[in-house]
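2 proteins. here.
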Amino acid sequence: MMKGGLISQAPASTPIAAPFFFVWKKDSTRQPVIDYHKLNDITVKDSYPLPCINETLEHMQGAKFFSKFNLKMGYNQLCIKPEDCWKTTFMMPDGPYMMNVMTFGFANTPAYFQQWMSDILQPVVGQHVENYLDDTATHHTTHGQTCDNQSHGVEMLSRCWCISILRNANAIRSKWVFLEWKFWQKDLRWKS
């Protein structure tokens, strides 16, 4: 993470530090966790709203073809102001480190990230392109139009340097899952 610039060594005199530990996941692997509860308690909350899932699903009604993609390390693409990095200090056995980028666990990360994605995709969201945090979907009634929409969405993200970290880009399909909903041609069901 240091080589990638995501974290850096924090000054030893930093007045606060969050604990770092591991939790076991269902697949028996360990997940690193930094507990930012105390930082989040004193953070002024960002009120930028997440998209309404019902509205997103309404926009997709009647579509026959879908594609989706999401951003790898989505939150880690947003830099923290250098003067605020010390607030993210966490303790490791070899000393204190601090985050240089947003990460899962900060109270305002989802709202800030959604605002960033909404700004990027604003010209096309609701017009056969939908977005919820790092998940973006394209949809249309014809295969060709869905291809065009997918290309347009990827082009807009690439202007903001996101293209190099796209993951899970799916081919155009007539059925798939987006935001835990299953889509079939002209049908929509909760994922079971």
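next one coming up
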Amino acid sequence: MPAAGATADISGLAIDTDDISGLAIDTDDISGVYVLGAAGTDTITGTNGADTIIGGAGSDAITGGAGVDVMTGGSGNDVYTIAAGLSTDTSATAVTDVITDFASGDTFVLGVAGSSTNYAESETSVDSLTALLTAANTALNGTVLYYFGVTGGNGYLITDDDTGAGANNIIQLTGVITFADNGAAIAS
């Protein structure tokens, strides 16, 4: 048995929460975790790496953290928190997070609630992510903070907190080609 206070590298660790309860993990020093939630309401926070998080049945609260995370909420009204500055693609050309099952009733927490004045969309599919980002960068003008567009059968929610040039997050919504009216799925 390791001595008290010993540390272990648990990169790549898979945790199935059906088998445990009351677990608290300090994720500051680990990354690339696979977490599978239980059937109830789960609160799951990712690490600083590229995580795979599956919430399971129930209304889950999922925070991906830094890194390109793949998040699946499962059934229920899930809440995805994308913290400003954590999943930023500095070149603003690549996906920063993936939501595999975003559906009606699910919401994002992005810092500022979506509204008809700070949200724009085009549900007409464009040829490439580059073309989508060009349209988004035109729309994200300081007043508009969120843009939804479609390419390749997937929707993308692009965010800009207007603290610098370009997008902060490019969130792929797998298989989603329509989004909530006027950004109503974006909570503060």
